[in-house]
Amino acid sequence: MLDALKSYTEKNGMTLNLKKTKVMIFNKSGRHMRRNFYFGDDKLETTRQYKYLGFIVTPSGEITTGLNDLRDRALKAFMKMKKIQGISFRRYPLITLKLFSALIEPILLYASDFWGILKLPKNNPIENVFISFCKQLLGVQKQTTNVGVLLQLGKVPLSLLAQKRCLKNWSRIVNNIKCNSMVTMSHENAILENLTWTTSIENKLSEIGMRELFLGKDKEIHTKASQRMNDIFYQGAFFSIQQEDSKLRTYSLFKTSIGYEEYLSKNQNIKERISLTKLRLSNHLLMIEKGRHEKIERDSRFCPFCPQQVEDEQHFLIDCECYTGYRNILFQKIAETVISFPYIDKAQQFSILMNTSNNTSNLTAQFISKAMILRESLIP
After folding, report:
1. 95-126 pLDDT, tens per residue?
2. In this structure, what DSSP letter does residue 100 have?
3. Which one of 118, 173, 225, 344 is least enclosed by Cβ atoms within 10 Å?
4. pTM
5. What distance separates the 2 farthest-apart alpha carbons in the chain?
């Protein structure tokens, strides 16, 4: 074949770019195997990896190397975007989300119509970039639970979008839309030989209870399957945060619906908004959370200022006498909006204070920010 190519180039006055012409020998071990291949008198270089159509491939067929390359390229673009935005990065979260979707996601999800359905590495570099972006946008620490961060922004894992694109590509091939004869033959061979890509499609559809779509020729496979996968994710997410041992057990008391939290856009005071977000996602220094890291029994995580009382989020907002001055101002302002507020029990008061669907979230955020500063100054 190389001799035929050499003859063709000579007859047509063409030259081959030897710098971009490499030899790779695929094998299960992924070793760099060397053999001698010549283009005329020129020996071709053998290589262990090659960027083919923008995605790095290796002899073993693994995709981790390619995903790491996409991550590195996306991180450069993300850091540049963040630098240009400056303070607007957190001030206008919805705009930042749209910019990330338009500028960074295409890099992260490049060629995902191929790799999206395959078995991804446990420490998925693509997902790591997305989760890191979400946490930076919210202003929370790296240790914050991923599920809570996604629920706060009304997002799903980026891997689900990659799977949707893969299923869309599958639908195009199955329905023979803009497919040449080579694609059609390749598809038929993959079905016949039970190759990894097609079996992964079938397994995913079976996993979500939609295997019948694999056998049919529904042009909306990707749309229906994507909706089902999103539903499964949210069901699992809400179930996990409601468990008794969940770090987000308190969050589950007021986070009951899917969607972006509007207070993130309404509250323009970034510092106060972050204080509220951290309290909602249990990313704070209260003993209920700090004691977890110090392996203190839950019932013994006492407030530094209130002996024998557990310092959890409700105690901080409703009970702790240390913040009475700030709290009186907060409750007075809340009562102007919610008339029944002084007469309901503490659990209901806590729910109203942490509920961001009403007009009280800014007031709660102000209290949390001031009280946390006071707490830090008093503890030493």
Report:
1. 999 999 999 999 999 999 999 999 999 899 99
2. I
3. 344
4. 0.90
5. 93
